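Batch job 17 of 40 flagged for manual review because the log was empty.
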Amino acid sequence: MRSWSFPIFKVAGVEVRLHLFFALLLAFSFTYANLTGMPVWRGVVLWLLLLSAVAVREIARAISAGYSGLELRNIILLPIGGLFSHATPESSERASVGSTQTLLAFTGPVANISFAVVLAMLINGVSPQIDLFGKPFITPAALLRSLVWLNFYMGAINFLPAYPLDAGRMLRGEFSRQRGSLSGTRAASGLGQIIAISTFVAGIFFQNIWLLMFGFFIYIGAHMEDQGTMFQSVVDTVLMRDIMLTDFSMLSASDTLEDALQKALHTLQDEFPVVRGGALVGVVSREGILDALRNDGNGYVQAIMSRAFATAQPGDSLGQIIRRTSGGNGLPLVPILEGERIVGIVTFQNLMQSMQMLTESRKLKASEQA
């Protein structure tokens, strides 16, 4: 989800990102306005109103998350709502607790429906000539009426027991308690896809383009969650000792950059642990060494090394490390420690190759046992 989104602003340390599906919807809004004979700007405003309905939902959920003590890293805005990414594993675990999950599940839909009711009352009081129950409910020709119904639909849709919608997340929690995390999530995702297809078919039958749209996005969301769960189930079975490089080079903090570059020439590594007296003190990249030499001339490794890095133990799972480092700029190098001693490294450079070799090794062992 994150790779298909882009940041729009940051507030209180939480990055708000907009999913590219909204760009698809903007194109749809242009087309819809043209088909209904409306000016294009009305289609753009209708798109902004949908975005505002998502914003109402996510602001309410963010307040509830703060009340529950959750630490958020980012919020990804989707046409059917938003997804939270947690800053710490503890926050993610706390969010899965029944009471917190229920609070978050109800906050979004209730906020949207309440906003729709209050807005309808205000419109009826100030401009009673506006027909709030005229059809179509959502159209570029009646933007105030559309704002009311967009919020109502956003709330109502999230009461469907279709994962990854709010009610679907509660259902997944119940399934997970009964069947385990993987089976529970897959069952909830499967039900979500069935509901999505039913919504899509209902949109065709009733010639309702908004039901078509919601069905499409629910299906995509459920499918992506299902794939994400499968990925998580795989990486959680891979331990760092299974994929770490045990033949690697290290640099000393007191090495000059020219000496470090000479050492780097004789290895395929792009990232290096930096030690002082045998203790790990930083990490540095081949590219960082070259850039420093070009810009500032010769110096010492300790002046350019990064002191912000993650470490792991041989028994840690790959899934744990990915979750632990997902808020940074990637996972260029993770030193594997036994006590204070570096026994291996994992880099993105070798991760895919190591995973492929591990998969083949497991297949061979399985065939031998069979």
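Reviewer: the log was empty due to a logging misconfiguration, but the result itself is present. The chain has a mean pLDDT of 83. Unflagging and moving on to job 18.
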